[in-house]
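=== RUN LOG ===
request id: a7f3
mode: sequence -> structure
chains: 1
length: 251
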Amino acid sequence: MKYIANFKKIVLRAIDKDIISVDPFKKFKGRKTKILKRPLSSDELERLEKHVFPVSRLAAVRDIFVFQCYTGLAYIDVYNLKKSDIRMGIDGELWITTERQKTGSPINIPLLPQALKIVDQYKEHELCIKRGSVLPVASNQKMNAYLKEIADLCGLESTLNTHKARRTFGSTVTLNNDVPIHVVKEMLGHSSVKQTEEYAITEQQTIGKEMRGLRQRLNIQKFEVGLNEDIIKKLQIELEEMKKVIAELQS
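=== RESULT ===
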Protein backbone atom coordinates (compact mmCIF):
# COMPACT_ATOMS: atom_id res chain seq x y z
CA MET A 1 0.00 0.00 0.00
CA LYS A 2 2.90 2.35 0.75
CA TYR A 3 4.32 1.82 -2.74
CA ILE A 4 0.95 2.52 -4.34
CA ALA A 5 0.57 5.73 -2.29
CA ASN A 6 4.00 6.92 -3.47
CA PHE A 7 3.21 5.99 -7.08
CA LYS A 8 -0.08 7.90 -6.82
CA LYS A 9 1.84 11.06 -5.89
CA ILE A 10 3.90 10.70 -9.08
CA VAL A 11 0.71 10.23 -11.15
CA LEU A 12 -0.88 13.36 -9.61
CA ARG A 13 2.22 15.36 -10.47
CA ALA A 14 2.05 14.02 -14.04
CA ILE A 15 -1.59 15.15 -14.29
CA ASP A 16 -0.68 18.56 -12.88
CA LYS A 17 2.00 18.95 -15.58
CA ASP A 18 -0.41 17.73 -18.31
CA ILE A 19 1.79 14.71 -19.02
CA ILE A 20 -1.29 12.49 -18.67
CA SER A 21 -4.93 13.60 -18.88
CA VAL A 22 -6.79 10.94 -16.91
CA ASP A 23 -6.22 9.87 -13.30
CA PRO A 24 -5.91 6.05 -13.34
CA PHE A 25 -6.51 6.05 -9.57
CA LYS A 26 -9.89 7.82 -9.85
CA LYS A 27 -11.96 4.70 -9.14
CA PHE A 28 -9.30 2.90 -7.15
CA LYS A 29 -9.98 2.28 -3.48
CA GLY A 30 -7.06 0.92 -1.57
CA ARG A 31 -7.36 -1.13 1.59
CA LYS A 32 -4.78 -1.24 4.32
CA THR A 33 -4.18 -4.62 5.87
CA LYS A 34 -2.96 -4.22 9.42
CA ILE A 35 0.01 -6.49 10.07
CA LEU A 36 0.31 -7.72 13.63
CA LYS A 37 3.92 -7.14 14.62
CA ARG A 38 4.39 -9.22 17.75
CA PRO A 39 7.07 -8.47 20.34
CA LEU A 40 9.05 -11.18 22.10
CA SER A 41 7.19 -12.79 24.97
CA SER A 42 8.77 -12.73 28.45
CA ASP A 43 9.68 -16.43 28.05
CA GLU A 44 11.36 -15.81 24.69
CA LEU A 45 13.27 -12.83 26.07
CA GLU A 46 14.48 -14.89 29.02
CA ARG A 47 15.57 -17.72 26.72
CA LEU A 48 17.52 -15.26 24.60
CA GLU A 49 19.22 -13.69 27.63
CA LYS A 50 20.30 -17.02 29.10
CA HIS A 51 21.63 -18.60 25.88
CA VAL A 52 25.41 -19.11 25.79
CA PHE A 53 26.97 -18.39 22.39
CA PRO A 54 30.28 -19.95 21.35
CA VAL A 55 31.11 -16.90 19.20
CA SER A 56 31.69 -13.48 20.81
CA ARG A 57 30.31 -11.73 17.72
CA LEU A 58 26.86 -13.29 18.25
CA ALA A 59 26.99 -12.71 22.00
CA ALA A 60 27.64 -8.98 21.41
CA VAL A 61 24.74 -8.67 18.94
CA ARG A 62 22.45 -10.49 21.40
CA ASP A 63 23.53 -8.15 24.20
CA ILE A 64 22.83 -5.06 22.09
CA PHE A 65 19.41 -6.43 21.15
CA VAL A 66 18.62 -7.17 24.82
CA PHE A 67 19.78 -3.65 25.72
CA GLN A 68 17.23 -2.33 23.22
CA CYS A 69 14.56 -4.55 24.82
CA TYR A 70 15.19 -2.89 28.19
CA THR A 71 15.54 0.69 26.93
CA GLY A 72 13.25 0.91 23.89
CA LEU A 73 15.92 2.67 21.84
CA ALA A 74 15.75 2.40 18.05
CA TYR A 75 18.78 0.94 16.24
CA ILE A 76 20.19 4.30 15.14
CA ASP A 77 19.83 5.75 18.64
CA VAL A 78 21.74 2.81 20.17
CA TYR A 79 24.40 3.21 17.47
CA ASN A 80 24.79 6.91 18.30
CA LEU A 81 24.55 6.49 22.08
CA LYS A 82 27.56 8.10 23.77
CA LYS A 83 28.78 7.73 27.32
CA SER A 84 27.92 11.40 27.87
CA ASP A 85 24.25 10.55 27.14
CA ILE A 86 24.06 8.53 30.38
CA ARG A 87 23.57 10.92 33.29
CA MET A 88 22.46 10.90 36.89
CA GLY A 89 18.75 11.66 37.24
CA ILE A 90 16.98 13.57 40.00
CA ASP A 91 16.16 10.21 41.60
CA GLY A 92 19.85 9.38 42.01
CA GLU A 93 19.68 6.68 39.30
CA LEU A 94 21.34 6.61 35.86
CA TRP A 95 19.21 7.75 32.91
CA ILE A 96 19.63 7.89 29.14
CA THR A 97 19.10 11.55 28.21
CA THR A 98 19.31 12.28 24.50
CA GLU A 99 17.15 12.87 21.39
CA ARG A 100 15.69 10.53 18.79
CA GLN A 101 17.49 10.96 15.49
CA LYS A 102 14.31 10.17 13.53
CA THR A 103 12.08 12.85 15.09
CA GLY A 104 14.32 15.01 17.30
CA SER A 105 12.01 14.32 20.23
CA PRO A 106 13.67 14.09 23.67
CA ILE A 107 14.46 10.71 25.21
CA ASN A 108 14.55 10.27 28.99
CA ILE A 109 14.81 6.63 30.02
CA PRO A 110 15.82 5.29 33.45
CA LEU A 111 18.29 2.43 33.03
CA LEU A 112 17.02 -0.90 34.32
CA PRO A 113 19.51 -3.31 35.98
CA GLN A 114 19.60 -5.55 32.88
CA ALA A 115 20.61 -2.59 30.68
CA LEU A 116 23.16 -1.29 33.21
CA LYS A 117 24.83 -4.70 33.33
CA ILE A 118 25.32 -4.65 29.54
CA VAL A 119 26.69 -1.08 29.61
CA ASP A 120 29.24 -2.08 32.26
CA GLN A 121 30.15 -5.23 30.31
CA TYR A 122 31.29 -3.27 27.23
CA LYS A 123 32.81 -0.14 28.81
CA GLU A 124 36.36 -1.37 28.02
CA HIS A 125 35.53 -2.73 24.55
CA GLU A 126 38.03 -1.59 21.91
CA LEU A 127 35.37 -0.27 19.50
CA CYS A 128 33.52 1.57 22.28
CA ILE A 129 36.72 3.31 23.40
CA LYS A 130 37.62 4.21 19.80
CA ARG A 131 34.18 5.68 18.98
CA GLY A 132 33.30 6.93 22.46
CA SER A 133 30.13 4.87 22.22
CA VAL A 134 28.31 2.87 24.88
CA LEU A 135 28.02 -0.34 22.84
CA PRO A 136 29.92 -1.90 19.88
CA VAL A 137 27.01 -1.65 17.45
CA ALA A 138 27.53 -2.98 13.90
CA SER A 139 25.61 -1.83 10.81
CA ASN A 140 21.85 -2.40 10.82
CA GLN A 141 22.20 -4.86 7.91
CA LYS A 142 24.77 -6.94 9.80
CA MET A 143 22.79 -6.75 13.03
CA ASN A 144 19.64 -8.11 11.39
CA ALA A 145 21.59 -10.85 9.59
CA TYR A 146 23.19 -11.98 12.85
CA LEU A 147 19.85 -11.78 14.67
CA LYS A 148 18.38 -14.33 12.24
CA GLU A 149 21.24 -16.67 13.11
CA ILE A 150 20.68 -16.00 16.82
CA ALA A 151 16.97 -16.79 16.56
CA ASP A 152 17.78 -20.18 15.00
CA LEU A 153 20.35 -21.00 17.69
CA CYS A 154 17.91 -20.07 20.48
CA GLY A 155 15.04 -21.99 18.89
CA LEU A 156 12.89 -18.89 18.54
CA GLU A 157 10.07 -18.98 16.01
CA SER A 158 9.90 -15.18 15.99
CA THR A 159 11.83 -13.29 13.36
CA LEU A 160 14.35 -11.14 15.19
CA ASN A 161 15.20 -7.66 13.95
CA THR A 162 16.31 -4.47 15.65
CA HIS A 163 12.80 -2.96 15.66
CA LYS A 164 11.30 -5.99 17.42
CA ALA A 165 13.44 -5.09 20.45
CA ARG A 166 11.76 -1.67 20.63
CA ARG A 167 8.33 -3.28 20.46
CA THR A 168 9.35 -5.75 23.17
CA PHE A 169 10.21 -2.84 25.47
CA GLY A 170 6.93 -1.09 24.66
CA SER A 171 4.81 -4.17 25.31
CA THR A 172 6.42 -7.07 27.22
CA VAL A 173 8.79 -5.10 29.45
CA THR A 174 6.67 -2.03 30.29
CA LEU A 175 2.94 -2.20 29.48
CA ASN A 176 2.64 -5.84 30.60
CA ASN A 177 4.22 -4.84 33.91
CA ASP A 178 1.62 -2.14 34.57
CA VAL A 179 3.68 0.88 33.48
CA PRO A 180 1.08 3.51 32.41
CA ILE A 181 0.84 3.98 28.67
CA HIS A 182 1.49 7.75 28.86
CA VAL A 183 4.82 7.02 30.62
CA VAL A 184 5.74 4.44 27.94
CA LYS A 185 4.88 7.02 25.29
CA GLU A 186 7.40 9.46 26.74
CA MET A 187 10.17 6.86 27.01
CA LEU A 188 9.63 5.73 23.40
CA GLY A 189 9.64 9.35 22.21
CA HIS A 190 6.24 9.00 20.53
CA SER A 191 4.28 12.12 19.60
CA SER A 192 0.93 10.60 20.62
CA VAL A 193 -0.52 7.80 22.73
CA LYS A 194 -2.08 6.39 19.54
CA GLN A 195 1.41 5.46 18.33
CA THR A 196 2.15 3.69 21.61
CA GLU A 197 -1.17 1.81 21.50
CA GLU A 198 0.13 -0.06 18.43
CA TYR A 199 2.75 -1.60 20.73
CA ALA A 200 0.16 -2.67 23.31
CA ILE A 201 -0.09 -6.36 22.46
CA THR A 202 -1.08 -8.10 25.66
CA GLU A 203 0.63 -11.38 26.53
CA GLN A 204 -1.45 -14.46 27.32
CA GLN A 205 0.25 -14.49 30.71
CA THR A 206 -1.04 -10.96 31.47
CA ILE A 207 -4.55 -11.86 30.35
CA GLY A 208 -4.44 -14.89 32.68
CA LYS A 209 -3.30 -12.69 35.58
CA GLU A 210 -6.13 -10.20 35.01
CA MET A 211 -8.70 -13.00 34.77
CA ARG A 212 -7.47 -14.53 38.05
CA GLY A 213 -7.95 -11.15 39.67
CA LEU A 214 -11.47 -10.97 38.21
CA ARG A 215 -12.31 -14.44 39.55
CA GLN A 216 -11.17 -13.41 43.02
CA ARG A 217 -13.27 -10.23 42.91
CA LEU A 218 -16.33 -12.19 41.74
CA ASN A 219 -15.84 -14.78 44.51
CA ILE A 220 -15.61 -12.00 47.12
CA GLN A 221 -18.80 -10.43 45.80
CA LYS A 222 -20.54 -13.80 45.88
CA PHE A 223 -19.33 -14.33 49.46
CA GLU A 224 -20.57 -10.89 50.49
CA VAL A 225 -23.96 -11.54 48.89
CA GLY A 226 -24.13 -14.84 50.78
CA LEU A 227 -23.33 -13.05 54.04
CA ASN A 228 -26.03 -10.46 53.41
CA GLU A 229 -28.62 -13.19 52.79
CA ASP A 230 -27.67 -14.92 56.08
CA ILE A 231 -27.93 -11.64 58.01
CA ILE A 232 -31.38 -10.93 56.53
CA LYS A 233 -32.59 -14.41 57.49
CA LYS A 234 -31.34 -13.97 61.05
CA LEU A 235 -33.02 -10.58 61.32
CA GLN A 236 -36.27 -12.02 60.02
CA ILE A 237 -36.15 -14.83 62.61
CA GLU A 238 -35.39 -12.34 65.41
CA LEU A 239 -38.23 -10.10 64.22
CA GLU A 240 -40.70 -13.01 64.29
CA GLU A 241 -39.56 -13.93 67.82
CA MET A 242 -39.98 -10.31 68.96
CA LYS A 243 -43.49 -10.27 67.48
CA LYS A 244 -44.35 -13.39 69.50
CA VAL A 245 -43.01 -11.84 72.71
CA ILE A 246 -44.98 -8.64 72.14
CA ALA A 247 -48.15 -10.64 71.41
CA GLU A 248 -47.73 -12.64 74.64
CA LEU A 249 -47.23 -9.45 76.69
CA GLN A 250 -50.31 -7.87 75.18
CA SER A 251 -52.44 -10.91 75.99
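=== NOTES ===
The chain has three domains: 1-33, 42-202, 209-251.
The mean pLDDT is 85.
=== END ===
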